[in-house]
């Protein structure tokens, strides 16, 4: 008997998948205009029958525009599944005490009803409002410090203050510190640097700062902090004074002495915040959180002891139907190819090869068919037959003037090199973004930096030249040599500029939990903020 007869189900499955692959076109990366517009008006026709209620989730694009994808009970259930799985693996390496607390910097944004009657909001907002979020706390027997009224408070500055206050109030009970993306932890601790005296005063007197407005949030916090705690306040105050003297190095273990680790997404576009996170975490391990998207969860970190730079994500094959488009870096001399990679035919998860780069394609239980996620991953190995992925970058080219092609990862590496010169002068890079100026001739790259600390202009001039010289893309190097691309410009923006950008995103309905600074922008509103806040400009002298 042949293999197919012995395994009739598998045989039919293979035929089914092949027909599916032949018959179903790809949905281009994050293209959903027609599809989601229909959903918003309530005209969805999903072939997947489901008894779950549909919601719509907002997804940010690299550019900062927002789009909508479906979110169902299944989405919340897979979130619970992956969180429990990841917690089990973490507890093997870093056991935590049962029944204690997690300091979670998590934020919901507003939900609203579409004309079709669907609830729309960010994926994290739906999740924090779901039954599964409560269940996660019960099943993992660890509880977030803040009540629901704080998480859904709406104003991220007020929510951050309350997270910090309650985190400090429960300081002995906190087992680990976490957020969805590392950015939120960094911004929370930078706000602690500014508000620690006020936080201590609230703990000392059992009060709540007048900066917190929503009555429900005030009541929920004060119901927890029922009595003044002067001894705890004095202890925290003493620690903060000591921390101030060492530029807040080791803030986490100092203020949360029982914390075992810091846990968040630290890969991809969060990599630039790692340095600051390490600084705040002192000797505590940083554990890189799992890989997913609003559309579907993808993989889990099975080896939490690995440093974030080496982390891989084991794909969970039951979360979606995964396909992989093999990607080959294009021949550097071939300028006719518009994209940054040459693609091969998509293959199923069972056929991927170690060392090969792929773009992920999803068919989800929420009704997305052959949906290109736009992420580039590399297969690093296997775990029981399922691939372990390295996250490489977002696929989209972000900086291009003519024949040059630089990705988010290229930009990150260049900025890392340029900013190394800052550390020698006791200054640090707070955040950055970029823009390809094709309006002024010759076109050129502009990199915007926000810096903390004083720094000499000669060093900044050096940083600028170093960054320009560090782009290794052949198209860029050739164009710079022939001056068809002009010298790179470094624009230094005033302190607080990236907070303004964050505010702008939040005002447009983003939630801090899912915020990622756009690393390259053509968004006119953002460019106006950046250019308005520019205080110094430098032009590269590389290739002079
Ligand atoms: P969103 O749907 O807005 O939450 O963003 C999902 C995107 O965030 C993914 O497509 C990735 O580009 C990025 N992302 C999510 N998890 C990770 C991770 N663990 N490492 C790197 N990037 C990630």
Q: Round the mean pLDDT to the nearest integer and report it.
A: 86
Structural class: alpha/beta
Distance between the amino and carboxyl termini: 73 Å
DSSP E strands, number: 22
β-strand percent reads: 15-25%
The general outline is globular
Output the number of helix runs: 18
User: Which hetero compounds are present in the coordinates?
Assistant: adenosine monophosphate
Q: Compute the CA-based radius of gyration.
A: 24 Å
Low-pLDDT parts are 1-11, 29-53, 332-338
Domain GH3 C-terminal: 409-524
Pfam families: GH3, GH3_C, GH3_M
Protein name: Indole-3-acetic acid-amido synthetase GH3.10 isoform X2
Keywords: Ligase
Which features characterize this protein?
globular, alpha/beta, disordered N terminus, nine-stranded antiparallel beta sheet, single chain, five-stranded parallel beta sheet, 544 residues, binds adenosine monophosphate, 23% strand, 22 strands
């Amino acid at each position: 008997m042949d293999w197919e007869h012995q395994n009739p189900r598998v045989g039919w499955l293979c035929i089914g998948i092949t027909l599916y692959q032949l018959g179903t076109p790809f949905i281009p990366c994050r293209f959903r205009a027609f599809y989601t517009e229909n959903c918003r008006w309530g005209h969805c026709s999903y072939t997947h029958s489901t008894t779950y209620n549909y919601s719509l989730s907002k997804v940010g694009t690299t550019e900062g525009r927002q789009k909508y994808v479906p979110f169902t009970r299944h989405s919340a259930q897979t979130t619970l599944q992956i969180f429990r799985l990841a917690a089990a693996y973490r507890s093997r390496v870093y056991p935590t005490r049962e029944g204690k607390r997690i300091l979670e910097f998590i934020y919901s944004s507003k939900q609203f009803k579409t004309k079709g009657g669907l609830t729309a909001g960010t994926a994290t907002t739906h999740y924090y409002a779901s039954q599964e979020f409560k269940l996660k706390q019960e099943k993992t027997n660890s509880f977030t410090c803040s009540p629901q009224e704080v998480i859904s408070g709406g104003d991220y500055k007020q929510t951050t203050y309350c997270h910090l206050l309650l985190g400090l109030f429960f300081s002995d009970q906190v087992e680990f510190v976490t957020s969805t993306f590392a950015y939120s932890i960094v911004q929370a601790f930078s706000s602690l640097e500014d508000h620690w005296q006020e936080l201590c005063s609230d703990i000392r007197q059992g009060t709540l700062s007048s900066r917190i407005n929503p009555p429900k949030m005030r009541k929920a916090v004060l119901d927890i902090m029922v009595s003044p705690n002067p001894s705890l306040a004095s202890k925290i105050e003493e620690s903060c004074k000591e921390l101030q003297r060492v530029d807040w190095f080791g803030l986490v273990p100092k203020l949360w002495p029982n914390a075992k680790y810091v846990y968040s997404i630290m890969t991809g576009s969060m990599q630039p915040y790692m340095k600051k996170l390490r600084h705040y975490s002192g000797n505590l391990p940083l554990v890189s959180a799992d890989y997913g998207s609003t559309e579907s969860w993808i993989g889990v970190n099975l080896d939490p002891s690995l440093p974030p730079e080496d982390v891989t994500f084991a794909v969970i094959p039951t979360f979606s139907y995964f396909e992989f488009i093999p990607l080959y870096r294009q021949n550097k001399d071939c300028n006719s190819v518009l994209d940054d990679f040459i693609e091969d035919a998509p293959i199923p998860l069972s056929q991927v090869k170690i060392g090969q780069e792929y773009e992920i394609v999803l068919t989800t239980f929420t009704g997305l068919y052959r949906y290109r996620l736009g992420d580039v991953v590399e297969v690093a190995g296997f775990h029981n037959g399922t691939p372990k992925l390295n996250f490489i970058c977002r696929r989209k080219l972000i900086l291009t003037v003519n024949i040059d092609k630089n990705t988010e990862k290229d930009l990150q590496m260049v900025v890392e090199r340029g900013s190394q010169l800052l550390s020698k002068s006791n200054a640090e890079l707070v955040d950055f973004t970029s823009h390809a100026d094709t309006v002024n001739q010759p076109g050129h790259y502009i990199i915007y930096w926000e810096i903390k600390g004083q720094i000499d202009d000669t060093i900044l001039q050096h940083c600028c030249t170093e960054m320009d010289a560090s782009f290794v893309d052949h198209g860029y190097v050739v164009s710079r040599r022939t001056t068809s691309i002009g010298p790179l410009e470094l624009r230094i923006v005033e302190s607080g500029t990236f907070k303004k950008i964050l505010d702008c995103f939040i005002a447009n309905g983003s939630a801090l939990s899912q915020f990622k600074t756009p690393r390259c922008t053509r968004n006119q509103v953002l460019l106006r903020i950046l250019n308005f806040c520019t205080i110094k400009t430098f032009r590269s002298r590389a290739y002079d």
